[in-house]
Amino acid sequence: MRCPFCQSEETQVKDSRPAEEGVAIRRRRQCAACGARFTTFERVQLRELTVLKASGRRAPFDREKLFRSIQIATRKRGVDPEAIERIVATIIRRLEALGETEVPSRTIGEFAMTALKEVDDVAYVRYASVYRNFSEAKDFQAFLGSMESE
């Protein structure tokens, strides 16, 4: 593993432990060259996922992008970072369970909205406002009205 600080490839694992409910391994590493410490995560990857965008463009699935979008939606809502990790891990497992290598971005967005609705209603509405491209206050009203009818 290359050191993110000095780019040396001489690093040592100092500590390993399970993370994300056993679906990942958290490793604390130390660089032999500069002495810096950093953390890495090791996860099982069943297959490379490609995201099929609404424009027709294809892009590799980016776990960090999904994590950041959910983190932004839950900002200042008191949602535990571990809960965000669990949401992301659950969405990825659901995507892999589909058995497809190409997944529409719409599917990822719907999975994220479903997960956020179970965790925090405000985060759910925040995510939906970006995902569904709300442009006016009436978009929020219509969405909130549909939430109440569910």
Attribute tags:
150 residues; alpha+beta; three-stranded mixed β-sheet; elongated
List the helices and strands and how they pair.
Blueprint: E1 11-19, E2 24-31, E3 37-43, E4 50-52, E5 58-60, H1 63-74, H2 81-97, E6 102-104, H3 105-119, H4 121-131, H5 137-149
Parallel strand pairs: 4-6
Antiparallel strand pairs: 1-2, 2-3, 4-5
Helix pairs in contact: 1-2, 1-4, 2-3, 3-4
How would you sum up this structure, described in words?
The protein is of the alpha+beta class and 150 residues long. Helix content is 45%, strand content 22%. The protein is built from five helices and six strands. It has a three-stranded antiparallel beta sheet with strand order 1-2-3, with no helix packed on it. A hairpin with a 5-residue loop joins strand 2 (24-31) and strand 3. It is elongated, with a radius of gyration of 19 Å.
Task: Provide a compact summary of the structure.
The protein is an alpha+beta fold. The strands form two sheets. It has a three-stranded antiparallel beta sheet with strand order 1-2-3, with no helix packed on it. A three-stranded mixed beta sheet has the order 5-4-6.
